[in-house]
Amino acid sequence: ISKHNQDWIFVKDESFRIVYANDAFLGVYPENMQDKIIGFTTLEEYDVAEAELFLADDKTAFEKGICIVTEDLHMPDGQHIIVETVKRRFEDEYGKAYVLGVCRNVTRREHLIRDLKKANDELDDFTSIASHDLKSPLNAIKRLLEWIEEDCKTLLPEEHLENLNLVMNRADRMQVLLDDLLRYARIDQGDISTAEINLAEVKHDVTQLLDLPKNITVNIGEGVLIIPVVPFKTVMLNLIGNAIKHNDKAEGVVKVTMLDSRHHYIIEVSDNGPGIEPKYFDRIFQLFQTLRSRDELEGSGIGLSVVMKHLNNFDGKIEVESDGKLGSTFRVYWPKKAK
Question: From CA 324, how far away is CA 43, in angstroms rounded?
């Protein structure tokens, strides 16, 4: 099995000498060096710093039984690669200790992960900086507009005053958008401490933080959760706020319940609003996406993106059920922590 395996498989004795190596491991070295592998440590082929790391990992495997590392290597043939190595201690029938090593080339995977992390970091930095830097000139514009309104409201014709109010409304909308964008960028920097809460506690936050119309009833059931409180409440407030904002019924109802599950907290947020056509299910979670014009319904289009980002951070997921006519149900799956 090891002979034909593409991973590099080797065995070292307590003196850190290689006593076995499969073909893939031997093939890493030039042919004129392959007779100096079995019975040798091969450390002389690496930089001093890399050699010391190998020895430290070998010692850890001998002492603790296992060592798993991902590391950058400069190979004897000049290549630069990234490998994941698992070293595990075992003993033969005479009680002599060895370390079995299995080394896998993960260069492509690690480069993709690092590129993705870099891109995400750059995007978060850009979002945060852009939002912050745009706030100052926007505030100045809003102040100037307010001064113009104060000085000229008795001088301008009605049509011009309407246009001025329209510009001021657009400035207010931009302020909300920047605030929401900044909160979105800072999600990964928030408080993620875990505590026990009752789902019914969200009711207090809804009444305190959301503008609850008189024709909307919010019913939140019972249920105990051990969960990162701030991210969870943020998700709930965005889902409930979204259900309230889009409800077009004379008597609107939003219902929040928790279902039993072994591995997840499953929370459903249902409403009797206009519903969402299935073809829009993917679109609603995209940044800045709204299904109605912002002139019809004010909003930045970030709320459900915030929900999705929080859930992705905690390996959760969200599903949507709706026929586009008779309300919607958002079902959140939040993983339970192992006790």
Answer: 66
